[in-house]
Amino acid sequence: MANVATTNNQSKEADALSSVALLLAGAVFLLMMIAGLLMRSAQGKLIDLDPTLFYQLMTAHGAGMVGAAALSGAAIMWLFLGRHVSLNKLAFKAFLALFLLGVVLILYSIFVGGFGGGWTFLYPLPAHSGGVWETAAAATFLVGLLLVGAGFLVLYFEMGRAILVRYGNLSQALAWPLVFRGKMETVPPPTIVASTVIVIFNSVGTVVGAATLAISLINLFVPTFEIDALLAKNMIYFFGHVFINASIYMAVIGVYEILPEYTGRPWKVSRPFAIGWSAVLLFVLAVYPHHLLQDMVMPPWMLVMGQVVSYLSGLPILAVTAFAMLGYVSGSGMKWDLASALLFLGVFGWSVGVVPAIIDGIISINKVMHNTLWVPGHFHTYLLVGEVAMSFGVMAWIVRSKQDVALFSGLQRAVFWTYVVGALGFAMVFLTSGAASVPRRWAVHAPEWIMQDRIATLLGIVTLLSAVYFVTRFGSRLASGERK
Ligand code: HEM
Description:
The chain has 16 helices and no strands. The protein is an all-alpha fold. It has 2 domains: 50-332, Cytochrome c oxidase-like, subunit I domain (Cytochrome C Oxidase, Chain A), CATH 1.20.210.10; 335-484, no CATH class.
């Protein structure tokens, strides 16, 4: 009896920790949406923004959004992994502390130190500000990112440890006997397979990112300490691609765990599911050269690999998650509420967002498209309509009440559809602008592009307003203790 009570208390604390992290991520999403809106309205000449400030906002928006996506993903993974293995909550607290300390340093470096080199900290840009920021500001930014990375490594170490304690080895946790022999005694649940894949590939990605950060940091103070710029670019894009993908993969665990509660059909690890996730492990590590297709000095085989793997990498996702989800949902007679609708939308947005990436991964198209708004169009689709929608869905599920299904016909349904139109429309304008060769990362836009910028600003405001509803509803229900 005492054991059951302790376990219940522990799981309640894990829930509370995840909820706090999700709320924090939600608040950052809102703040960074405002930063994004300021940039978009400045491009549309609705407001006057000094270009220096534009690039500071762009740096804060990029780092903040990627950080919040990763934080919300990590909170979701922690919440559900804790249902299957025994996790030490100290690790999550250490992760949160390192993450927050990193965020404070990043914000300080940008808004006090004036750092505006972009969240991708492309080497050797942090050391070449042209007088816009001091070395100390760049160093503070890099240290801030390092702390965030260290936080993730602590978290993954604990998750990996707990998985190994429970499943004995990685092969079992990845369901490899099922992959290679077609059967295994005790098939692990989807959360274990997905978490194991994520822990492996994002630990590798984060370590590579941390190495580049450390080298850049030394280079700031000892300029003769150099790294080959092309190698550094490879390392940074490897890290960036892996890290942002991990945020979506972590969030999709929420779909595997929550949707079965609605459909009454447990999400099982089938052989295709296990193969799909093992394929993700390979593809997510090998696909990053599609960011470097314009770097003519890259070894040709890597560019070809980037293109081919871009085609392949979308398939496992679509097969084992999107199509499977349609299978589970159809004919299940499930009742929709805000949580299930947002989770469904998230998988839709993720799948749709993969398509422009595949198009951009084609070398002949990439030559003209990669530095245009097509690329923000791709990732705003799979983040804003994908990861962020899934996170809002998990938030809505955590605080859902019995009446929510009935209420879904009223305000909730209206706000949900407003978000769909706003977020999808906002991302689509990026895509159409990219298709018309409007460049990305330009603080000042030509008069011909301004109409699209203004339409996007309007859609962005609509998105922000619905996001405010999702996050404040979550926060106020948490505060009032109104939970499932
Ligand atoms: C209402 C919501 C949003 C608005 C208004 C917005 C706006 C913008 C704008 C104007 C840019 C610069 C585009 C350019 O000219 O290159 C941008 C870039 C970016 N956004 Fe957003 N965004 C939103 C949501 C998000 C979300 C949810 C994420 C991720 C979770 C995100 C991640 C990024 C990233 C990583 C960049 C690239 C920054 C860079 O180029 O260094 N955004 N966004």
